[in-house]
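Team,

Forwarding the record for the chain on the shared tracking sheet. I've put the sequence and predicted structure together so nobody has to dig through attachments.
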Amino acid sequence: MKKAILILILVGILLAGCGKVKDGSSETTVAKSMTENDYNEDVEKLTDKSVYQTIVEDFDSDNNNEAFVLTRKGKDNEAVEDEFELWFSNGDKTERIVADFIADNNTSIMLFESGKDKYVLFNKAQTTQNDEMEAKIYGVSSEKPVELFSQSRMNISVEKGELYTYDYTYFVLEPGSKDWMSQSEQKYHLKWDNENKKCSDYKANVMSEKEFNKISNSKDVKKNIEDALKKEYSDGIKNVKYTYLTREDSTLDINTVVTDSEGTKYKNYVTVLHKDDKLGKDVVIQEGNKKVSILEE
């Protein structure tokens, strides 16, 4: 009888120790064995919407996974607009971090990795009204979601591990009109400071015509732009005004305002490599003009 009691006591001790691994005086929690489907089911119990996208990772490197879950009310993926929510779960607690909002079907969450750290990009997309767009970057600290960045009127994409966004401006001014028309988009490179968990842009400094002309290949680049504009505005050009913006990411934006033979003005830009006091010669004409800075202070 005493032997049986001793065995039961030993089994109880072993069971009490399950889920923890001891190393001297430290303890490490064993990762929770929740699947993506488990997180989805937890979220769907709390909402009238269906799971649209899910990202499961160990965001805060504590050996436990967390999940960001984007839900959607409709089931028709072709619908132009729908009702969405964004949820977060650490396995023990599930919470809604972005309440009901209307957006189009390009709304998404995606994983962004910088070094060993992992983040989630949340894009509220709007095809028809860019002022309704919004971008957020989330991290996780102590198994809780942390909003690290938020700005309206933009979405963020990841290309080869780098962050990019687009601005939307008007680029055509008809004779006699005071308002620029015809919406266009301009691409901007964003800078992620992984140490301080901060997103900023590669701000530009205005460069004079004299400074531009001192750069190697500047004459070739200017000639290539002139040739490209002549093809673009084949009916004739009255005047071209140039401005130059040199950026921290070793690029140079060349803004142009073209006045055609009928007096209509068009804003365009070209981005070329600017490194070691030398310019890249590849020229692609884009609509609109670039700004010095795209992000809000």
